[in-house]
Specification:
About 20% of the residues lie in helices and about 45% in strands. It has two helices and eight strands; from the N terminus they run E-E-E-E-H-E-E-E-E-H. A six-stranded antiparallel beta sheet has the order 1-2-6-7-8-5. A two-stranded antiparallel ribbon has the order 3-4.
């Protein structure tokens, strides 16, 4: 779901983005007839940004798998054509677990916030092909600030 990683500070934070477009799944509001990006996909995009941060921090040895979140707030709507900017921070990181918090914004306005996502860290090889994952990271992070 992440289209681009613009900044990453290993072990600390990530800034990434998701361009909402009509190739994504959309919901249609029954009252306004407007299409919008589902809230669950907004949350998934932020979780994936966190997973990229954990993988880069652990040199692609570990991948975060969401277990729970302390709080999730949906504060706005993402429409087709919007760029959802994802900002996340590692609150704590241990060998087998991590806690991650972050938010998403569109045009400078916060549309979603998640606090204290508890993640289990599993070996990346159990879930993904590591060379392919590294290649994807390089494509997403071309020109990234570190």
């Amino acid at each position: 779901m992440v289209d681009r990683i613009t900044e990453i500070l290993e072990g600390k934070s990530i800034t990434a983005s998701k361009l909402a477009n009509f190739q994504d799944c959309y919901m249609k509001d029954a009252i306004t007839n407007q299409y919008y990006f589902p809230e669950a996909l907004m949350i998934e995009a932020l979780c994936q940004a966190g997973a990229w941060l954990v993988m880069k921090t652990t040199e692609f040895k570990k991948r975060a798998v969401l277990l729970s979140a302390d709080s999730i707030e949906i504060l706005g709507i993402v429409y087709p054509g919007d760029e959802l900017v994802l900002i996340g921070n590692i609150d704590s990181l241990h060998e087998n677990a991590a806690v991650f918090s972050g938010y998403g914004k569109v045009n400078g306005e916060i549309v979603m916030q998640i606090n204290y996502m508890m993640c289990s860290l599993v070996d990346t090889t159990e879930l993904e092909n590591v060379p392919d994952t590294k290649r994807t990271f390089l494509e997403l992070s071309s020109g990234v600030r570190v």
